[in-house]
Amino acid sequence: MVMMLFLLLIIVSLFTYSDPGTLFDVLKQSEFHFALIFTLWTSLVATFLAVGVALPCGYILARYKLPGQALFDTLVDIPIVLPPLVSGIALLICFGPLLGDHLAKLGISVVFSPLGVIMAQWFVAAPFAIKSFKQAFINVDVRMENVARTLGYSPGKVFFKVSLPLARSGIISGIMMAWARSLGEFGATAMLAGITRMRTETLSVAVFLNMSIGEMKFAVSTAIIMLFIALVLLIILRTLMSGEVEV
User: Fold this and answer.
1) pLDDT in tens, 121-162
2) What is the Cα–Cα distance from 220 to 62, expressed in whole angstroms?
3) How many angstroms separate the CA atoms of 125 and 212, rounded?
4) Which of 14, 43, 70, 177 has the most beta carbons within 10 angstroms of its beta carbon?
C-alpha cells in the first residue's frame, strides 16, 4: 500500500507542475510536433527491425539446444543490464572510430544522425523482444507442431500455421514491450545520435533539452504526454497478457 501511494505521488507530482492550458500550448508547438512524429517513426522502425531479428532468434532458442547458447543468452542480456549511457558509448565507438570510415564509403552515416537514433533504440529494444518471443514459443505445445508435421506440413508451414498463431499473445506482448522501450530510450540515443534540436530530438531528448534551458513547462508537459503513452501501452500489454493466461 505504501509503495502504491508513493508511485501515485510520483505520477501526480508531474501534474502539479503543469496545467491544461500549458499542456494544450505545448501540443501546438512545432518542436513538440517534430519530437512526437520523430519518436513515433524511429521507434516503429526500430521495433520492426527488432522483431525481424527476435522472431527467428526466439524460436531457435526455444526449440533447439545450440553450442554456446548460454553465452548467447548472456550477450542478449547485456543491453538490458547495461546502463544506457554505457551502451551508447559502446555504440558510438563501434559506429565511429571502428566502423565509421567503412560505413561512410557506403554512404551510411550512423553517428549523430537519425539512423543513430534508430540503431540505439533497436539495440536496447531487441533483447526484450528476443526474451519475450522465446518464452512465447516455449509455451507452445510441441505436440501440436509434431501433429502438423505428420500431416505433411513443411517446417516453414509449421512455423507460420501452427507455432506463430499459438504464440501470438506472447509475440504481441513482446512487440509492445520492445516498442515501449524504444519510445522511452534516451541514454544510448543521446550518446550515439547526439542531442540536436529538430534533428535527433525524440520526446525524451525534448524533455532533457528544455529542462536544461529552464523551459520547465514544456519539459513537464512533454513528460505528461509520454506518461499517457506509457499508460496506454501498459494497459494494452496487461490486457494481452491476461488473455494469454486465460488461454
Assistant:
1) 999 999 999 999 999 999 999 998 999 989 888 888 999 999
2) 42
3) 27
4) 43
